[in-house]
Amino acid sequence: MEKIIVSQLGARMHYAVPRLLASAGMLEHFYTDICATRGWPRLLRTVPQNFLPAAIRRLTGRIPWDVPDDQMTCFASIGLRFALMRMHRLTPTGNTAAHVWAGSRLSKTVATRSFGRATGVYGFSGECLELLEAARAAGRWTAVEQIIAPRSIVDRLVREEEERFPDWQRPIAEDRLADIYAGREKREWAAADLVVCGSEFVRQGVIAEGGDPARCAVVPYGVDARFMLPRRVRHDGEIRVLTVGSVGLRKGSPYVLEAARRLQGRARFRLVGPANLEPSAMSALADGLEYLGAVPRAEILAQYAWADVFLLPSICEGSATAVYEAMAASLPAIVTPNTGSVVRDGVDGFVVPIRDVNAIVAAVERLAADTDLRLSMAENASRRAKDHDLDAYGCRLRQALQKIREPAPPSAPAAKTFREHVA
Questions:
Q1: In this structure, what DSSP letter does residue 367 have?
Q2: For the segment 389-420, what is each residue's pLDDT rounded down to a tens digit?
Q3: How far apart are CA 114 and CA 133, in angstroms?
Q4: Which H/E stretch holds residue 6?
């Protein structure tokens, strides 16, 4: 059986990849920064949660369920310094500097550890370059998950938004390290036998930036069963529209705000997520909708239960986890193609063009006016989510990884490169 090393910063997807591999008996070892079950961070769980700030409460939710203790190593000092750097370096350059430092430090640290019985390694974009290169040199296969569209594409799309909304956030043009981060991504693709993409949107972005199409595989994510909620259609009051995720230009937040303004008195909009915006934008949010700020993951289910409709009009994503969660909670979803979701237009919700407030408003109005349609889409969304639960995600991921080891057909010239280290 394959044995795989996984390395990641943070609790992305609630540690889905190491958890799924561990449950299948395929995890050799998992390396991360801070989690709530190791070292000093575990002491935070003994403190009453109401005494802790939201950022610390979120940390207590970092629990890699189902990953055996003897198969996990945490580098809390990396995570602590990373957090401090992000707190005190709020400029675009400072934020990128923090990510480059933490990603390279974790990658270099893990690369010095033994590969043991591992036949391959799995890392995440921007934080695994040195590990992939070391693994390849040691004869192991390599995979990197591109968690969002390539940095150059993200920056281009966000710059276009900055021209439309100049008072929302600090310009990314001030980021002097963007090219360095983008360069790390491209070197990771070159060092990887497989580039795992959460959506076709991401895959096309990787290819557009020079990635090898033969090495790219689309693997949609999965959702934890705890987000499964029955939908009860309310017949009183305004329709409730929920958006979950970081607040900013990339997430399409200005379009959420404009839709809320146009539908004032007919729909109630709630926005949940951290924000690093200019004061004028923060003031506009507070006046135009209900903004709750960041909410700990352990408390997010209550937000889905509150809502009737989920909205995420992203300009650029990978494959937004919040959409999977919302669908599991039986919420019709309004998204864009760039959200990278598994929503089917007219079935589980609506897929609207990016930057199109008119389409967002029309979709909300249609769902508000047609209770039967809303209930039908809610049921479809729930069924769609069941097809994309963690078990299904694990099967898709394992199948994609297995293809690294499969002999290539003679007619595929790119496959030799794809498998060159195991030939």
A1: H
A2: 999 999 999 999 998 877 655 543 443 332 33
A3: 14
A4: strand 4-7
- 308-337 exposure pattern, b = at least 16 Cβ within 10 A, e = fewer: bbbbbbbbbbbbbbbbbbbbbbbbbbbbbb
Mapped onto helix, strand or coil, the DSSP state of residue 320 is coil
How deeply is 53 buried, as exposed, middle or buried, from its count of CB atoms within 10 A (0-12, 13-18, 19+)? exposed
Spatial neighbors of 379 by CB under 8 A, at least 6 apart, are 231, 330
CB atoms inside a 10 Å sphere around CB 101? 14
Q: How far is CA 4 from CA 115, 125, 216, 277, in A?
A: 9, 17, 19, 40
Give me the residues paired with residue 195 across strands.
Answer: 144, 216
Residue 45 neighbours by CB distance under 10 Å: 14
| 351 DSSP β-pair partners | 335
Which residue do the tokens 């900055």 mark? 162
Helix (H), strand (E) at residue 153:
helix 151-164
Token pair of 319, please?
Answer: 């494959």
Structure tokens at 191: 């060092």
Q: How far apart are CA 334 and CA 289, in angstroms?
A: 17
The whole-number pLDDT of residue 406 equals 72
Strand 27-32 vs strand 216-218: parallel, antiparallel, or unpaired? unpaired
Distance of alpha carbon 266 from alpha carbon 238, whole angstroms: 5
Domains of the chain: 4-222+391-422 (3.40.50), 225-386 (3.40.50.2000)
Tally Cβ neighbours within 10 Å of residue 50: 6
Buried b (16+ CB within 10 A) or exposed e, 131-160: bbbbbbeeebbbbbbbbbbbbbbbbebbee
User: Backbone dihedral region of 153: left (phi > 0), alpha (psi from -120 to 50 degrees) or beta?
Assistant: alpha
- Dihedral in degrees, nearest 10, Cα atoms 101, 107, 110, 114: -150
Question: Which two three-digit tokens encode residue 420?
Answer: 């060159």
Structure token digits, residue 276: 């690093």
pLDDT tens digit sequence for 37-93: 766 666 665 666 565 555 566 666 688 888 999 999 999 999 888 988 887 767 889
What DSSP state is assigned to residue 343? Answer: P
| Rounded alpha-carbon distances, angstroms, from residue 54 to 9, 300, 315 | 19, 12, 27
